[in-house]
Amino acid sequence: MPPPKDEKSTEQIIDINRRNVLSVLVNFNDELLVNGEEIQISQLKEKAMEFLENPTNSPNLPEKETKEINFLGDYPVSQGVISLTNDQSTSYDMYVQVQNELQKAVNELRDKLSSSYFGKKYENLDTAYQNSIQKAVPMNISEAPPIDYNKTE
Fold first, then answer.
1. Torsion angle defined by CA atoms of residues 12, 17, 19 and 24, in that order, rounded to the nearest 10 degrees
2. Which of 8, 62, 72, 118 could bridge across to 20 with cysteines, CB 3.0–4.6 Å?
3. Taking the C-alpha atoms of 86, 89, 94 and 98 in order, what is their torsion angle to the nearest 10 degrees?
4. Strand 37-39 to strand 81-86: parallel, antiparallel, or no bridges (unpaired)?
5. Segments making up each domain of the chain, as ranges
C-alpha cells in the first residue's frame, strides 16, 4: 500500500507560479544551468539579483506581494524562490561557489535596501531593522537532495 499523500506539500508546490521559480542546476560536469541556460559562475549573482528584485516588474520575473513591514511601511516583497539542485557528482568546490554567489545576491539586495532606507549597510543595522530588511528581502532558496543524472532506469 503506498504511503498517504502529503496534501499540504502538494498544495504548496502547485501554489508556486512558474515565473516565481529560478531553477539552478549544477550537473555532474560542474556545469551551471539557470532555467535551462548554461551560464558561468561569475554570472550567477547578477542573474539571482535580477530575478529576486524584478526591478522593472517584468511579467517573466517573480510577482511581488505588498506587505506591511516595520520601519519600511508597505513594501513589495518578491515571491521569487531559487530552486537549487546538484548532481551527486557535483564537486564540493562548485557546490560552495554556487551557495556563495546566491548568498552574495541576497546580501547585496539587503545592503541596497538598507542603504536607501537607513543610510547604512545591512550588517551595521540593529536587530530590529535587520529583521525588517530580512522580511523585505527574504532568503528563499530551496535545495533539493542531490540527484544522479548518470543513473539509467
1. 20
2. 62
3. 0
4. unpaired
5. 16-143
Helix (H) or strand (E) holding 139: none
Q: What is the pTM of this model?
A: 0.83
Region 20-34: mean pLDDT is 95
What are the residues whose beta carbons fall under 8 Å from the beta carbon of 101, sequence distance 6 or more? Answer: 41, 44, 45, 48
- Which residue has cell 542573474? 47
Phi-psi region of 30 (alpha: psi -120 to 50; beta: other; left: phi over 0): left
Torsion of CA 126, 127, 133, 134, to 10 degrees: 150
| pLDDT over threshold 90, residue 93 | yes
Q: Encode 30-67: b = buried (16+ Cβ within 10 Å), e = exposed.
A: bebebeeeeeeeeebbebbbebbbbeeeeeebbeeeee
What is the SS3 assignment for 46-71?
HHHHHHHHCCCCCCCCCCEEEEEECC
In the predicted model, what is the mean pLDDT of residues 51-80?
A: 95
Cell of 141: 532558496
Helix axes 92-118, 127-136, angle to 10 degrees: 110
What mean pLDDT comes out for the span 62-73? 96
